[in-house]
C-alpha cells in the first residue's frame, strides 16, 4: 500500500509501468515513446501507456502529490490521472514544454483530447491536485504545496454515461524521448473538496 493513498494501486495499460516504492514515495520510469493523448485531428491511433490506478472514492475527495521529473525530452511528464475509459480521461501534468521549460499542463479527453499549457515553473518540482466535487472535477497546481491555482474545472460525463467507478492514479510519460524518471511524494488522498475552487485553498 502506498503511503497517503489508502486504496490498492494496480498496474494498467501497456507497456506495464516500471515503478517502485521508496521511503514513502512512488518512483516511476516512463518507457520510451509513451503517451496518453487522443489527437483531435484523428491522425494517430488510440494511445496507451502503463499507469498505476486505484478506485476513486464515490464522494468528494482530493488527491495531491509533489511531482519531481527528471526532464530530458519534450513532453516528458509526471501525471495525476482521472480515468473513466479509453476515450474519457483527464491528466494533470508537470511537463517539459516544446521550449524545454517545466510547465503545468492539463488534458481533458472526451472522445478526443484537448491540450492546455498553464504556467511555467522555475524548478524541477510542482504540486498537483485532483478534486472531485459532486459530478464535476477540478485540477489545481501549486509551487509551494500551500496556495493552489485552479487550472481546470470540467466534467467527464457525456453520452454514454461514464462508469460508476472512475479510477485515479499516476503515470509517467515520455512521448518524444527515451524515457524519464518521475518521483511522486507527499501523496495525500483525503475526503472533501474546497468550498471555493478559486480562492487558493
Task: Give your account of this protein's structure.
By secondary structure, the protein is mainly β. It has no helices and 15 strands. A hairpin with a 2-residue loop joins strand 6 and strand 7 (about 90-95). The two termini are about 30 Å apart. The model has no long low-confidence stretch (mean pLDDT about 95).
Defining key terms:
7-stranded antiparallel β-sheet; globular; mainly beta; 201 residues; 8-stranded antiparallel β-sheet
Instruction: Please identify the structural class as seen in this structure.
Output: mainly beta
Let me know the largest β-sheet.
Answer: 8 strands, antiparallel
Number of strands: 15
Q: What's the mean pLDDT score?
A: 93
Compute the separation of the termini in Å.
28 Å
Order of helices and strands: EEEEEEEEEEEEEEE
Beta-strand content estimate: over 45%
Detail the poorly predicted runs: none
Would you kindly provide a brief summary of this structure?
The chain is mainly β. Helices cover 0% and strands 51% of the residues.
